[in-house]
Design brief:
GO terms for molecular function: metal ion binding; protein serine/threonine phosphatase activity. The chain has a single domain, classed as PPM-type phosphatase domain (Phosphatase 2c, domain 1, 4-Layer Sandwich). About 20% of the residues lie in helices and about 30% in strands. The protein contains 6 helices and 16 strands. The strands form 4 sheets. Strands 4, 5, 6, 7, 12 and 13 form a 6-stranded antiparallel sheet that branches. A 5-stranded antiparallel sheet has the order 9-8-14-15-16. The protein has a 3-stranded antiparallel sheet with strand order 1-2-3, with no helix packed on it. The protein is globular and about 60 Å long. The C terminus is likely disordered.
Length: about 350
């Protein structure tokens, strides 16, 4: 299974050529959508998406402007609506907060997340009578913002960003995880939940060998999942498997992201943003090694036509940014697999 995934990922780094114009060519071949080379404010980028036949719950985006570069990976669960809403609104809310504050800060990003959560909650409330199931839809959100010489990482849920960093003059590359994950499988998260809910012995439950918040969901932070945040949504007519047996006197899940500010250094070579499906099959070190083994990845792409049959049951989005600190040229690759 792991070898099949590695073989598939290696296709991403085969030489494909580049465009000399302002925007490269692209197209669609079956489940593959691609673009050769395009221009962003930060430089060049390449993009590819491989999509499963089923409904795509994950979303991703890369944007640039006077603020720098914005990258988002949104891992939906329970349905595609929350991830789509985040993709449509989080960056817009970020721009509003950045303009009001005049700079990119941790507070700027927090305000954008808060506005997005409030907006989605309002949608759920407005559609409660006709689409109550929206209360059980959510999305993990991983965001990176490159502003001047600082990389901001904000995360809700269990997606991950890993930095590939040069190790002196050895030619080696270190894998450094920059994001904090919020999954009940981690002892630190279980401890955090127990501290927040000291009177609830069932706040985390081991169910079928998997730790879950209230025995229902693995992640403790997300956009959406309002049935775990507001008592008015934890009732009929949502599915009984989501309804709690006892009254909810405080939010169980949170939409407050963990934010890190990382000053960029000349030894920082590339970033890998991916939802949890990738990290279930690759370690941080192996993912960095795959990228490092193809030093001209910024000029490579999926060679169409391409037919992919996935032998495993996972689903993830991946964005890889390779950048030069002097000009901040960047390249991104989106992959969605099932």
């Amino acid at each position: 299974m792991l070898q099949a995934l590695m073989n598939l990922l290696s296709l991403c780094f085969r030489p494909f050529g580049r465009s000399d114009g302002g925007g490269g060519g692209g197209g669609k071949e079956g489940l593959l959508w691609y673009r050769d080379v395009g221009k962003y404010g930060s430089g060049d980028f390449s993009m590819a998406v491989v999509q499963a036949n089923q409904v795509l719950e994950d979303q991703s985006q890369i944007e640039s402007g006077s603020f720098g570069t914005f990258v988002g990976v949104y891992d939906g669960h329970g349905g595609p609506e929350a991830a789509r809403y985040v993709c449509d609104h989080l960056f817009r809310n970020f721009l509003v907060a950045e303009r009001e504050g005049g700079a990119v800060t941790a507070d700027t990003i927090s305000r954008a997340f808060r506005a997005t959560e409030e907006g989605f909650t309002s949608v759920v409330s407005e559609l409660w009578s006709s689409r109550p199931q929206l209360a059980t839809v959510g999305a993990c959100c991983l965001v990176g913002v490159i502003y001047q010489q600082t990389l901001f990482i904000a995360n809700l849920g269990d997606s991950r960003v890993v930095l590939g960093k040069k190790v002196g003059n050895t030619g080696g590359m270190a894998a450094i995880q920059l994001s904090t994950e919020h999954n009940a499988s981690l002892e630190a998260i279980r401890h955090e939940l127990k501290e927040l809910h000291p009177n609830d012995p069932q706040i985390v439950v081991l169910k079928h060998g998997v730790w879950r918040v209230k025995g229902i969901i693995q992640v403790s932070r997300s956009i959406g999942d309002v049935y775990m945040k507001h008592a008015r949504f934890n009732r009929e007519p949502i599915n009984s498997k989501f309804r709690l047996p006892e009254p909810m006197d405080m939010p169980i899940m949170s939409a407050s992201p963990t934010i890190l500010a990382h000053p960029l250094h000349p030894s920082d070579s590339f970033l890998i943003f991916a939802s949890d499906g990738l990290w279930e099959h690759l370690s941080n070190e192996k993912a960095v090694d795959i990228v490092h083994s193809h030093p001209h990845a910024v000029r490579t792409f999926f060679p169409p036509p391409l037919t992919i049959i996935s032998p495993y049951h996972c689903y993830f989005c991946l964005i890889m940014l390779a950048y030069n600190l002097s000009v901040m040229d960047c390249w991104c690759l989106h992959i969605c697999l099932f």
